[in-house]
Write a structure and sequence with these properties.
The chain has 17 helices and 17 strands. It is α/β, with parallel strands linked by helices and 497 residues long. The protein has a nine-stranded mixed β-sheet with strand order 3-4-5-2-1-6-7-10-11. The chain has a six-stranded parallel β-sheet with strand order 14-13-12-15-16-17, sandwiched between helices. A two-stranded antiparallel ribbon has the order 8-9. Bound molecules: adenosine-5'-diphosphate. The site of adenosine-5'-diphosphate has 15 residues, from helix 12 and helix 13.
Length: 497
C-alpha cells in the first residue's frame, strides 16, 4: 500500500507531545512490514536539518492560494528514522512556520489550514495514486475536505486519528473562503458548523475531518467510547455518534529503541526486563543516586515519586500538587519535571517551589529529554492524575523503566494499567495503582495504599515492576490493527464503486 501521513509533529525533529512519537513509530513499523510510507509536515524553522538524511529540493516552486493571492512554496524531501519525509517550506509573508514552536500562535488556524491546502497542492502536482491518506488531529483534518471536494485527488481512503478531541480548530467561516472552500456550502449541521449552540457561527475543522474521513481512530479503545460523551468529546459527542460505524480505538505503541533502559545513553546504569529483580533494583538505585547528587536530594527518603508532564488542565495539576504534599507527608521524595503554557498555573507552581525548601522535593520547570529518561529510571512511582487521557505514553515508558504508575482510571490508562488489588485480574497482569474519581481524596487513598505496600510488601512491588517491564509496547500490534482498518476502508470503497 502507498500510505501518506499528514501531520504537524514527527519525532525527534518536531515533537510537542505524544503525537510526534506516534507518527514516527507507526510510519516506521508500516514501512518495516513492506508498505510505501511517506510523511508530509511543515519545514519549521527549528528543525535540526543535521538529524535528516538524503536532503533534496524536491519541488523548488509551487503555489498555494490564500485570500486570492498565490504564495510560493518549496517541497524538500529527506529521510528521518528510515521514513521518507516531505517538508513544506512555505514562503508566506506571515512566516507561518518561522515561530520557533509548533503550536500556540494566535493564527494557528490560518497556519495549519494553509499547510493543509499546500500539502494537497503538492499531492495534486505529483498526481500519484495513494491508498491511504492518514491525517492526525484537527490541524490537518481539513485536508479530508480539500482532497475530496476541491482537489479530487486519486486517494482510495482517508483515515483520521484523534489524539486529543479537546482541540478542534474552531475558526471563522471566512477562513474557509480564504483557501477556496465556500463557507456557505459548509456552514451546515451536516457539514462543518460547530455543534455547540454557543458557537453555531463557527466552523469546526475536526468535525469536518470526522465527517469526511472513511475511518476515525481514537488512540485507545476506552477513549473511543469516552468521546461519545459530551465531557470527553468536548461537545463533538453527537458528531462522534454519527460516525460510530467507522469509529475505532487503537492503542498507541512505543518507540522501543528510543525508550530502552538497556541502551539508554542518558542513564548512569543500564538494566533491562530480562535482568534479575535484584539487578534492576540496584541499577535504579544507582540512577537515583546520580539524580539525588545533582539536585541535592535525600536519596534515603523512599519511595521516590514524580511526574513528567505538561502542567495543563488535562493532566490534573491540582492533583499533582496534592501528590507532592502526600509524598512529603508519607516520608517519600518527589520530583516534578514539567512546565505550563498557562501563566497562572506556572506561577502557582513557581510559588510552591519558592515555599518548599525541603530536600525531599525538586521542581524542574523545563522540557528536558535527558532528565525525563533519568527520572523514569529512578522513580518508584509515576503519578498520572489526568482529568482525561486519550492514550498516554508516559505510563508505558514508566513501566518499561520499572517505575510503577499511580494513575486516574480514564482513557488509555484503563487499557494499560491494571490495579494490583483488583482480584478479578490474574496476578501476572497487575502492574500499578488506579483511582477512579478526580478528587484529592481518591488520589490520596491510592497514594497511601501504594506507600503502605511499598513498605510492607516489597515482594508484591517487585512483581509489579517485573510485570510492567515484561509488557510488549512495540508498534507491531497497533500497526497490524491500523492495517486492518486501512484494508476495511479500501474494501468498502471497492464495494461502493
Ligand atoms: P501528551 O502527549 O498528552 O503530553 P503523553 O503521555 O502521550 O502525553 O506523552 C508525553 C511525552 O512527553 C512523554 O514522552 C513524556 O516523557 C514527555 N514529556 C512531558 N513533559 C516533559 C518534560 N517536561 N520534559 C521531557 N519530556 C516530557
Amino acid at each position: 500500500m502507498r500510505i501518506v501521513q499528514l501531520a504537524t509533529e514527527f519525532a525527534p525533529i518536531a515533537k510537542a507531545g505524544g503525537m510526534g512519537e506516534v507518527t514516527v513509530g507507526l510510519s516506521r513499523e508500516l514501512k518495516r512490514i513492506g508498505h510505501e510510507v511517506e510523511a508530509i509536515l511543515p519545514k519549521y524553522d527549528f528543525i535540526d536539518m543535521q538529524a535528516l538524511r538524503s536532503i533534496n529540493m524536491e519541488v523548488p516552486d509551487f503555489k498555494c492560494m490564500e485570500k486570492g493571492n498565490l504564495h510560493a512554496n518549496a517541497m524538500w524531501s529527506a529521510e528521518c528514522e528510515g521514513v521518507s519525509l516531505h517538508l513544506l517550506e512555505a514562503r508566506h509573508p506571515a512566516g507561518y512556520f518561522h515561530r520557533g514552536k509548533i503550536y500556540g500562535c494566535m493564527d494557528d488556524a490560518a497556519r495549519f489550514i494553509y499547510f493543509s491546502r499546500a500539502a494537497m497542492e503538492y499531492l495534486k502536482l505529483k498526481d500519484k495514486p495513494i491508498d491511504i491518506l492518514h491525517l492526525h488531529d484537527w490541524h490537518v483534518a481539513l485536508a479530508a475536505v480539500l482532497a475530496r471536494d476541491l482537489f479530487k485527488l486519486p486517494i482510495k481512503s482517508i483515515v483520521l486519528t484523534i489524539h486529543n478531541a479537546a482541540y478542534q480548530g474552531k475558526c471563522a467561516p471566512w477562513d474557509l473562503d480564504y483557501i477556496g472552500l465556500s463557507s456557505a456550502k459548509y456552514m451546515t449541521k451536516e457539514k462543518l458548523q460547530d455543534d455547540d449552540p454557543a458557537h453555531r457561527q463557527l466552523i469546526n475543522i475536526l468535525k469536518g475531518g470526522v465527517i469526511y474521513a472513511d475511518a476515525v481512530i481514537a488512540v485507545s479503545p476506552t477513549y473511543a467510547k469516552e468521546i461519545l460523551t459530551p465531557e470527553i468529546g468536548y461537545g463533538l459527542d453527537l458528531t462522534f455518534h454519527r460516525a460510530n460505524a467507522k469509529l475505532y480505538g487503537i492503542l498507541n505503541g512505543l518507540d522501543l529503541k528510543f525508550w530502552d533502559p538497556g541502551k539508554d545513553r542518558f542513564l548512569s546504569e543500564l538494566y533491562q526486563a530480562g535482568d534479575s529483580i535484584e539487578r534492576i533494583l540496584k541499577a535504579k538505585e544507582r540512577n537515583r543516586e546520580s539524580l539525588a547528587k545533582r539536585f541535592n536530594l535525600q536519596k534515603v527518603n523512599r519511595p521516590w515519586a514524580g511526574a513528567i508532564t505538561r502542567l495543563v488542565e488535562q493532566k490534573g495539576p491540582e492533583l499533582i500538587e496534592v501528590a507532592i504534599d502526600d509524598t512529603l507527608r508519607l516520608g517519600g521524595t518527589f520530583v516534578l519535571l514539567g512546565s505550563s503554557p498557562t501563566p497562572k498555573i506556572q506561577e502557582h507552581f513557581e510559588k510552591l517551589k519558592a515555599k518548599n525548601k525541603s530536600k525531599s522535593v525538586h521542581f524542574h520547570f523545563e522540557y528536558d529529554e535527558s532528565l525525563a529518561h533519568q527520572l523514569y529510571a529512578s522513580l518508584d512511582f509515576l503519578i498520572l492524575p489526568s482529568l482525561y487521557e486519550p492514550c498516554g505514553l508516559s505510563q508505558m515508558i514508566a513501566m518499561r523503566y520499572g517505575s510503577i504508575p499511580i494513575a486516574r482510571a480514564t482513557g488509555g490508562h484503563k487499557d494499560t494499567i491494571f490495579d494490583c488489588e483488583d482480584l478479578k485480574l490474574p496476578a501476572k497482569k497487575q502492574n500499578g495503582f488506579l483511582f477512579s474519581s478526580f478528587t484529592p481524596r481518591s488520589e490520596t487513598e491510592s497514594f497511601e495504599r501504594a506507600f503502605r505496600l511499598f513498605r510492607e510488601k516489597p515482594a508484591l512491588i517487585q512483581t509489579l515492576i517485573k510485570n510492567g517491564m515484561a509488557i510488549d509496547w512495540s508498534w507491531e500490534k497497533p500497526a497490524q490493527e491500523y492495517m486492518r482498518v486501512y484494508q476495511k476502508c479500501i474494501q468498502n470503497q471497492r464495494a461502493i464503486a
